[in-house]
Amino acid sequence: MSVFQKLLFTKSLHHVGRTEFCGYSTGKKVAPVQSKQPVDPRRVFKIYRFGGILSKEKPKLISYDLDVSKCGRMVLDALIKIKDMDPTLVFRRSCREGICGSCAVNLQGNNCLACITPIPSDKVITIHPIPHMYVIRDLVVDMNHFFDVYDSIRPYLIRRNQGPLGKYQYAQSINDNSKLIGLYECVLCSCCATACPSYWWNGRRFMGPATLLHAYRWIIDSRDEDTEQRLYDLRDDFKAFRCHTILNCTLACPKGLHPGLAIAKLKRLISGLDKKPPSEIDAMKFSDSGNKC
User: Fold this and answer.
1) pLDDT > 70: what percent of the chain?
2) Does pLDDT of 111 surpass 50?
3) Alpha-helical runs (H) found in 173-279
């Protein structure tokens, strides 16, 4: 043992009962560590149950007592565990990573994706299907209208007179590509749309936040050449302009996106207050060099 180590060891012996770190004393008494109260892992899940219109049964809430320490941390893990207890429970799920949007539910009154939402610490947890949708069974809702409206905006790249799509790669500058950030991440879970009062009131004519966000995404894309027709198709009193900027969509989005801001920018393009900025580079820049996808 070196002389310096002996000095540190000797000094530490004279400071018993004090906070020590490498032989140096803070002169403060060590506060006793208070043990945390154990959290009861038992939860009561009240889940909406409905057998569908043909069953002629009334919707109801069924309670399930679950020890959440015996399943994963997310709401979807609890639902899977409850389905082991009651195989008749029906819900959608797929990726378990928050990228497919299948497991959207209404948890404690708020829309969320069950796979990326932690189990609340509340003793009683209530789960309903997302609102303003026809319930097929239990937590499964009819998404046909939602996807029909989404399909109506032609959510794909449109080029004119430049050969079949997919033959060549289409160039895009870094600045042009950055305009798509916060738009392409939408997973079409419909959490935003079903939290929007305007969509509740005018759901058959108002396109809803998710669809309008994607409409703006394709309009602003520098590689797309159908801007004028896309904007013309949205010139309607209901399709976009029934958005009253309530911003429930932004609060409900599980991906942290801002549909309200995208819709505001889209309205300015539709009304002619703004123009789509020109592309920084020609999208067909590499088409003559023979570079194919």
Assistant:
1) 84
2) yes
3) 174-178, 197-201, 209-220, 227-233, 248-252, 259-270
